[in-house]
Amino acid sequence: MSRLLVPLILILTPLVLSGQVPSDAPADPFRPVSFLIGRWQGTTEGQPGRGTVVREYSRALNSKFIRVKNRSTYPPQPANVKGEVHEDEGFISFDRSRKKLVLRQFHVEGFVNQYVEADGSTTQKVVFTSEQIENIPAGFRARETYTVIGPDAFEEIFELAEPGKAFETYSHARFTRIK
To answer: What pLDDT does 21 receive?
Structure first.
């Protein structure tokens, strides 16, 4: 072995064994959404009417993902005569090649939304814009914006855009952390 290779192996071996090999991922790629970890409850209003929402964000699968479970309940009301219960589950992952967070949601209605983190997201405001939506007419787009209000509060604005049109607010939810 060359004289340079032996010292390099001696330096890298402890790093490999300890799992501290440098990577292209940030120390915590979920830092922009880490405030979400926990259980939340709140109110929502929008096109389906006024309702309540319960949500949980948790680290999953060796902390490689954040799991999301959501349930929104809209009682019967003039804006939604029958009322409805909406459920969706999803995962937030970190795409190392793009260096972006990706949110995948699976809705009880059969929709599957895949969003990518928008440029300019911060630890105070994270925006996800759809890059693919299954089981909806082609050309629809969606956007989710999470804004931190305080250490135990955030709001979410969910927007939809029909083909060729601008985003319109579908729902606006306000959450407080359940202690």
So the answer is: 46
Give the residue numbers spanning the domain of 141: 26-177
pTM of the model: 0.83
CA distance 82 to 48: 10
Residue 7 lies in a domain: no
Residue 158 within any structural domain of the chain: yes
Q: How many CB atoms lie within 10 A of CB 10?
A: 9
Structural domain total, the chain: 1
Mean predicted confidence (pLDDT) in 1-24: 51
Q: Buried (b) or exposed (e) across 69-92, using 16+ Cβ within 10 A?
A: ebebebeeeeeeeeeeebebebbb
Report how far residue 106's alpha carbon sits from residue 89's, in angstroms, rounded to the nearest whole number.
5
CATH number at residue 37: 2.40.128.20
User: Residue type at 99?
Assistant: K
User: In the block, which residue shows the tokens 């300890």?
Assistant: 18
Question: Which of 138, 34, 119, 53 is closest to 129 using CA atoms?
Answer: 119
